[in-house]
Amino acid sequence: MDFIFAAVVFGIFVLISLLIDRGKKDDKVLKRLRDHWGKLPENSHTDFDFRRISVFFREYGKKNARYYIDDTTWNDLEMDKLYALINSTHTSMGDEVLYSLLRTPLYDSISMEERLALIEYWEENPQVRESVQMLLERFGKYRDKGASTLMGDTEHLKLRKGNWFRLLTFLPLLAIPVIFANVGFGMLLLILSIGFNVLYHERAIKEIDSKISIVTSAVAIIALADRIAGLDLKGVPRINTRLNDLLKSLREVARKGSPSLFINKEVIDDPSTLPKMIFLIDIWSYQASVLLLKQKVDEFAQLFEIIGLLDATISLASYRKTLEKWCVPKIEWEHDQGINSINAFNVRHPMVKNCVGNPVLLNKPVLITGSNASGKSTYLKTVAINTLMAHTIGTCLAESWTSVPLFPITSMALRDSILDGESYFIAEIKSFKRIFSAVNPRIKCLCIVDEVLRGTNTIERIAASSRVLESLARQNICLMAATHDQELADILEEIFENMHFEEIVTDSEVSFDYRVKEGRATTRNAIKLLKVMGFDPKIVSDCMDAVAHFEATRHWKRIEEKPELPG
Fold first, then answer.
1. Is 220 helix (H, G, I), strand (E, B) or coil?
2. What is the pLDDT of residue 71?
3. Mean pLDDT lowest among 21-35, 233-247, 447-461
């Protein structure tokens, strides 16, 4: 009795010690969460494995979205950098759903209002938010090693040997009655069946080793969802209801696929491993989990999305706290044809420090001219990114933002493709073709073009650019284009509104105010930059004379060959 009493006391002491230690760890985690709230994470886009992070988008988000941002637009806008800037998620699910969220803008008012309500819920309810964050933080990142691949084909999870394990499981049991009839033969059969099962077990475990993490991650995600559901998120009833409904269907997966069953231990360290090997218990459990997950893949995808959405929207609420000036965009879901496509003030680029704010007033196509480095491309990206943010995270870096529903698509930072054997001009043509293909009667496209068809000769560029832009302008498109070709401003004057950026040039430097102005550009800076950068004054003056001659005659003066000076 004394021994039992001592063992009980010791057990209680150990339990209390563990609880105290857990409490101290939780206190440290909570302090860290509070310290990091409302601060930008110290991320770089190079820190993220976007091939892994994009799995949920490719396998589920993209397939279930009516509209999604294509790779060209995503890369033009450098959205990997924005993703890194705003991502303070705690789990791999949050990583993947945040990425998918940014690539699948919403175009119905109900879904957008629900997302805004969820972000605002975390802002207004810090205690509930911190409780959810604690659970997410305990789960952590990189524990989800491929669970999002379950949204795709699950056939690769099955054992190649099929159902042999079902028969092999009973071989040791069949040897027992044989022992009573013939001890020697029965024992031999028992030893052989045990040995064969152990070998089969080891080979099967090696085969499914990389797949086990997918199943165990799925089980762990279901367990996490169960704990979050226990918090009873009454402030977001639709999320709460969906979470509980999905768990009713998925708890069976968690029961049959307990992660502890798949831990491959040595027999000497854990004697319970031996019966698992003999009777192939964890193989049964693995196969049962795979079968259930295959049957419930859609429910699991929805659960994955909800957990990721909770994590992602907490991250977005924190991002809002880092901003000094921002607004919730007003989307005119029902609008008259004559309304401005965008009516916004003091709009800024989220990734440019000390960005100069500019108005965006679009009621007709806009052609932007201006000098090199004056701000044209940044302005175009600013409009496109804020449009995308309006339809994804419900946050714009602007004093105010009102727009009709707009789907952004761009053609800005194209490159030659040596491997595909494509020239720059071919890449441009394909990029424009996809824009025409994206036009639809339901949602107006925000089409952003930087330097139209720059990859060909001047005469054909002007002719083709003007006609392509004119054709786009007559589609269901809100069009903004930037160019160095002043001829386009003349040709398209009746259709496009002209805007420009300009520079301030002195003898020693060229500076910019980065303010968009009405009308076409009247200044140029390329030759002036040659002077500022210290080029031979003779080259600079010859350049200026050539420009003056062309403007006077509309012809370029031929450069005559000069005799070499005697050496």
1. helix
2. 94
3. 21-35
- Report whether 375 contacts 352 (CB < 8 A): no
Residue type for position 246: L
Q: How far apart are CA 466 and CA 468, in angstroms?
A: 6
- Sheet with 358-362, edge to edge strand ranges: 330-331, 400-403, 342-347, 358-362
Closest CA to 77 of 430, 420, 432, 350: 350
Tell me the C-alpha to C-alpha distance, in Å, between residue 260 and each of 136, 154, 275, 276: 20, 22, 14, 12
User: In one letter, which amino acid is 339?
Assistant: I
Q: Which amino acid is at 391?
A: H
Total residue length of the chain: 567
Task: pLDDT band for 24, please (50, 70, 90 cuts).
Answer: low
Chain-centre distance of CA 324, in angstroms?
24
Mean pLDDT, residues 414-430? 65
Give the per-residue pLDDT at 515. 93
What confidence tier does 143 reach under pLDDT thresholds 50, 70, 90? low
Q: How far apart are CA 439 and CA 433, in angstroms?
A: 10
Separation of alpha carbons 129 and 148, rounded Å: 25
Q: Which pair of tokens denotes residue 108?
A: 């119905």
Q: For residue 379, is pLDDT > 60?
A: yes
Q: What is the pLDDT of residue 93?
A: 94
CA distance 131 to 136: 9
Burial of 179 (0-12, 13-18, 19+ CB in 10 A): middle
Task: Find residue 517's DSSP bridge partners.
Answer: 500
Q: What is the pLDDT of residue 560?
A: 79
Q: Which of 235, 213, 210, 225 is nearest to 299 (CA)?
A: 225
Q: Distance between CA atoms of 117 and 155, rounded to whole angstroms?
A: 39
DSSP three-state, residue 405: coil
Q: Which domains does the chain have, with CATH numbers?
A: 7-142+309-322 (no CATH), 156-225+244-305 (no CATH), 330-524 (3.40.50.300)
